[in-house]
Prior knowledge:
This protein is of the alpha/beta class. The protein has helices at residues 13-30, 50-58, 104-122, 137-145, 166-169, 191-200, 228-236, 282-293, 313-324, 343-356, 376-390, 396-409, 447-460, 479-482, and strands spanning 32-35, 39-43, 76-82, 85-91, 125-130, 153-157, 180-182, 208-211, 215-222, 254-260, 263-269, 300-306, 328-334, 365-367, 422-429, 434-439, 469-474. The chain has 14 helices and 17 strands. The longest helix has 19 residues, at 104-122. The radius of gyration is 27 Å and the shape is elongated. The two termini are 54 Å apart.
Amino acid sequence: MTKKQKPDFSQPLAQKQAEETAIKIDEEMRNKEFANCPVVVIAGRPNVGKSTLFNCFMKKKIAITDPTPGVTRDPVEATAVICGKPVYIIDTGGYKLERDSGTKEAELDELVVGKSLDEMRKADLILLLLEPGRITAEDEELILRVRPYWKKVIAVINKTEGGRNTDIAYEYAKYGFDELVFISAEHGDHLEDLSQKIVSRLDFSRVVEFEKKPVIRLAIMGKPNTGKSTLSNRLTHSDASIVSDYAGTTRDVVEGKFSYDGTDFQVLDTAGIRKKAKVKENVEYYSVNRAIKTLDECDIMILMIDAQDGLDEQVKKICALAYERGRGIIFALNKWDTQEKGRTSFRNAVDKIHIMFGQMDYAPVLALSALEGKGIKDLLDTSIELYKQLTQKIDTSVLNAALKDWLFQYPPPASKAIHFKIRYMTQTGVNPVAFLIFATKPEVVPQTYITYLKNKIRSDFGFGKIPVQLEMKASRQDWLERQK
């Protein structure tokens, strides 16, 4: 028999209450939106732990972390709640000094460095992340680059868990930092101290707080080099995503926000998805997985298709994943400005898509040029239309009145082998849109009849451009009897 566990009185009551209050405030703030938040940029050379620290502030894994140097390329940014205050944090790409001159990789590194320096220039506070050990030329170069912003720099020495290597890390003091903050992002050492220092250095007087309102979340997906980042930058009127013809440029999911016609949008620019045989780096594997996981977080997937290259089986797999999750799907034929003009050529392209995606002929197909900005209005108008369908709720009584008509128009097939009665129907979910129909023997209902009912739901209730999920369940009780 085990002894009854005694209550723990080791922690003072006041401290417990303070922690509970902090947690409550944190949860409340995450249910709100903020504007004009102070901006904190995490900068440093590759592989010092920038993305790990970013994820710590966000309290979830957003940025990809991997021992491979230079994993982060595009800035990854989001609003975090630090010590009860909203802070906009940007995880920048690693500052690389050594490059293979004349290579595509070197060109990309130059873009990453330029983007990182630009973010530091605009920041309210810079966390210059360093690590104990040999001070590299990249460290010294980056310290030199941040000199003009010295008053808004906090020198943070990472990877000093348990006080390890702090004596070596004090070598950075020779560069004239006001103080050195020792942390371990991976182990959580002294993150609270760092958080308090961050908040004490920022001005929150300009922050505007308001209740969250619906935001249409667009995930831009497709193969590499189809124009995903170009479209993302066009929609957000920014250059947040690095644009390059180098396959695999985008690794993290790059987020951006914009408004159109009174509607707020969030765009998620994902990594290009290639065949498994062509995915050779661990980092690219994580990137592809993160892109696919984005389907769980978005409302609508914009599938970018290069009008010059057309379709392949990999694109088909992406669509299948979106269909399974009940997401709205828009086929975007990008680079249409390079194709032969005329209705016939577009009609032929649409026919090819419908042949390959036979069960998705409801999904809109649009021609656009992300580079020139053509077709963007149609894309956003269509997205708003799809979102309205995804969030539409039909009253149960209206559904069952319609069901009665559908059964009269096309009675269920009956034979010795197949005999069932359909009782009633209800809508079980929105975004994804899902319905449940109760029948006496759901296991014998032919797939053709289920398809008939699904098509009637879509055509009669305005779900004509989105996938509809329909489940059959056993019931012997009549719907009308349930209303008594």
